[in-house]
Amino acid sequence: MTAPLSIYVLVDALGWEVLRYRPFLDDLWAERRWLVTILGYSSGAIPTILTGQTPSQHGHWNLIYRDPARSPFGWTRPLARLPKPLVENRVSRRVLKSVARRASGYSGYFSLYDYPVAHLPQFDLTEKRDIYTPGGLDAPSIFDDLRAAGIPYECYTYHTHTDPEILALAPARAESTAARVLFLYLSGLDHHLHYHVHEPESVSQMVAWYEAGLRRVWEAAHRARSDVRMFVFSDHGMTPIRWTYDLRRDVQATGLRLLDDYLPAYDSTMARFWVENDRARATLTALLEDHPCGTLMSDRELQRLGVWFEDGRYYHMLFLMKPGMLLSPSDMGTVRFAGMHGYHPSEPTADAVLLATAPVDKAVDHITGVRGALLEDLGLATWERAA
Ligand SMILES: [Zn+2]
């Protein structure tokens, strides 16, 4: 075949610090650089990669946001009156999740983690559709670009396949496809690093497994054609956890009343608060502005980081933990993870990567630049870098 093939691979949590001293297809790359990520999780970082916009612009940030009027969980309201042990246990939460998923009609990444059932009617989920499709986000993404330009592509993600399945079928697809683009999203490294980031041998083995899998894809593509390009990029890194802290206990000790005074979301590296009155704001400010575990973020810095939302749907107040300090227990679970992401983007272990077999504009130093690099690879020059 003479038609070119571009292989775009998004590897969740493939951090610069993870790759820095490990071999990873090093003979292939014309570019190998770190990218600054956004403040937040994959739910904000991946839409940022796909759209080239900041969360403030494309609207996707953390997994849940406050919107009681449109919450798909309004029907769970009566459950709040039941005794807590009856509702807050693994079995009933699993049932609740599967009912909620069907009732919502959402087809994106669906998890309720451990957000209290009594608070669910306050929230809506950010990811309502499969974001790896045209129209999957409210802002135009690389998938809309591909469709608009009439560029045929194939895309494989966790929605339909596991990582071993993707890496097993991708070489054959790379060899025989008539598509211009093969897009792979690999999510399993993130899970491994959450549990094993402190074990260098284990991490090396896992990285080597992905390396071998992607090399098979690369070689298979080359068997069929001469013009093959590969771009590997990630959404964030992984920060080793050194301490945990139960911030909820401190907040509860203030005597503020849940729902009447404030609504919290404890997200493993940050605590978000919606406040109902000035007293709640003043009390939380007094508790958090000098707290040794983290920083009460200023509106100005949140604006600078591209995660400010005028309508306050994601938070009124945001307390960010220091790198390496895990909020635990949190609404994301009670597991004491070995690694976590979602710290300040200036933390070196938070950096993402961009690896490419073709040169990339030197100005691309942030995950907002990935879409532009891909559009350039495709010869679509309509793109302008987000401010
Ligand atoms: Zn993760």
| Second rung of CATH, namely the architecture of the domain at 5-55 and 150-239 and 345-377 | 3-Layer(aba) Sandwich
Quickly count the helices. 13
Q: Which cofactors or ions or other ligands sit in this model?
A: zinc ion
Counted beta strands:
16
Explained architecture:
- Strand 10 and strand 11 form a beta hairpin.
- The strands form five sheets. A six-stranded mixed beta sheet has the order 2-16-7-1-6-5, sandwiched between helices. A four-stranded antiparallel beta sheet has the order 10-11-13-12, covered by helices on one side. Strands 3-4 form a two-stranded antiparallel ribbon.
- Among the domains are: 5-55 and 150-239 and 345-377, 3-Layer(aba) Sandwich (Alkaline Phosphatase, subunit A), CATH 3.40.720.10; 242-336, Gyrase A, domain 2.
- Helices cover 32% and strands 18% of the residues.
- The relative contact order is 0.22.
- The chain contains 13 helices and 16 strands.
- Helix 7 packs parallel to helix 9 (200-224) and helix 8 (188-196) packs antiparallel against helix 9 (200-224).
- The protein binds zinc ion.
List the helices and strands and how they pair.
Elements: E1 5-11, H1 16-19, E2 31-35, H2 42-51, H3 55-58, E3 64-66, H4 84-87, H5 90-104, E4 123-125, H6 142-148, E5 153-156, H7 163-176, E6 181-186, H8 188-196, H9 200-224, E7 228-233, E8 239-240, E9 243-245, H10 247-252, E10 262-266, E11 270-275, H11 278-288, E12 294-296, H12 299-304, E13 317-321, E14 325-327, E15 339-340, E16 352-356, H13 370-377
Parallel strand pairs: 1-6, 1-7, 5-6, 9-14
Antiparallel strand pairs: 2-16, 3-4, 7-16, 8-15, 10-11, 11-13, 12-13
Helix pairs in contact: 7-9, 8-9
The protein binds zinc ion (ZN).
